[in-house]
Design goal:
13 strands; 6% helix; 180 residues; mainly beta; three-stranded antiparallel β-sheet; flat
Length: 180
Amino acid sequence: LVTALTGQKIGGTIGLNADASVNGDGSFSGSADLAGAGMRWGSEDLQKILGSTLALKANGKGEKNAYTLNLETVKAGIISASGNAALDASANTANAVLTAAISDISPLLSGAAGSLTAKADVSGAFDAPAFSVTVTSNSMELTETKAGAGFGGINAAIQGNASLKAEKTVHATASASMEK
């Protein structure tokens, strides 16, 4: 997406409300609320995907060696996302979850209709994280066939873990299913 935006003439109105505070004990917190209206993304294809409005809401805080970030909303056209992350530098652990959705796949995949959701999780020690990624669709249809080919559901998943110690290894399993 970033590559597609490179060199494009983009425009619109963007407003930002931000708040941040640092306390005497070194803890901090902050939030940001960004809204865009009348957005123009430079090409007809990008306009169909990203739409004319943009929204982002996030907040975070930190104290000593523990930090959190909450991504409440990211919304642009057919794409939306939310998530959160926590980092504990004292315990060398992290936990993060990101959920994203595409409400209408047709601008991205010619000859298809339906929606997709995806979720990614990472958790555990910095040097031995566990991870999972799932992609789901409850109704997908290929429209450029004579009779059309509909699917009741598409599910794909990858799960695994990694060891980033002396011997760096990644173990993963993948599965996928499609229902008619």
